[in-house]
Each structure stands twice: as C-alpha cells, then as structure tokens.
Amino acid sequence: MVLDVVGVLASLAIALTSVAFSHYIAQKIKFKSNLRGLVTELKYNLEVLEDIRVFLMQDEEAEREEGKQAVVTFPRPCRFAFDYFVVEGHLLKVPEKVRKELLDIYRSFDIINWLIDHYLETKYGILYVTDRAVKMRRAIRATLTGQVIVTERMVKNFLKAI
Questions:
Q1: Does the chain have fewer CB atoms within 10 Å around its N or its C terminus?
Q2: Of residues 46, 81, 41, the one with CA closest to residue 155
Q3: Residues 6+ apart with CB under 8 A from 162
Q4: Which residues neighbour 55 within 8 Å (Cβ) at sequence distance 6 or greater?
Q5: Using CA of residue 138, residue 78, residue 28, residue 91, what is the dihedral sign?
Q6: What is the rounded distance in angstroms from the CA atom of residue 66 to the CA atom of residue 59?
Q7: Per-residue pLDDT tens for 94-120?
Q8: CB of 119 closer than 8 Å to CB of 141
C-alpha cells in the first residue's frame, strides 16, 4: 500500500514537473518570437524615419519656390509589435536599461506621429487658411526633422546593443 502511494506521488511529481517545464519552454519560445518581431518593427521604423526625412526635404524645397507645395503624405512609425510585447508582459522581463530605452524610442515615435499630424494640419487642414500657417509649418518641420534624427540614432544604438 505504501509502495502504491509512493508510486502515485512520484508519477504526479513527474507529470507536474513535465507540465511546468513545457510551460517554461513555451514562454521562452514566445518571448524570443515576440522579441524578433519587435526588432523587425524597429528596423522597419528606421526605414520609415528615412522616408520622413526625405519627404520633409522635398516639402521644404517645394516651399522655397513661390506658391509651390509638395503634395505628400507621410508614413508613420509603427508600434504594433511593441504594444503586443507590452501586453504579453515581456517588457517587464527585460533588464531595466533595455526597458527604458524601448520606452524612450516608442515615446519618440509617438511624438513624431503627433508632429506629423500637426504638420499636415498646417498644409491641408484648418490651419492652412491662417496667415501663420507657413511659419508654423517651418517651425514644426524643424522640430520634426530634429526628432527624426534623434530617434534614428536611438534606434540604431539600441539595435547595435542587442
């Protein structure tokens, strides 16, 4: 009888250990997969930042000519992989320094998107009809260009470090 209880307990312990180990392995695989997705998104966003810089230069050149305006719409940095990374709880699993860098990078992407919204508002929105639209657009363009350059550097440094 004692032997039967020991056998059952040993089997139960092996089964629970097996389930726990399987869960641990699955979480490791999921983390690595989500991290690869995040890195891919960062690389894609680097290309988007380059496109934004090019469009800003084209827009500025067109504006220098009297009465001209480049009709462009701007691509936006994505944050889907980052949001999923956060929702899955992976952001809390990375070291504090990495977490802070990622948060800074994606906050910068949010600022870029916000600046693009305001920039386009001075070109096509209600602000276009104001007498200060050109001045506001120039100021926003300068700020946006600076933010893009800083963000590109942050992303490149982050990708080199990981």
A1: N
A2: 46
A3: 39, 98
A4: 70, 72, 74
A5: positive
A6: 13
A7: 999 999 999 999 999 999 999 999 999
A8: yes
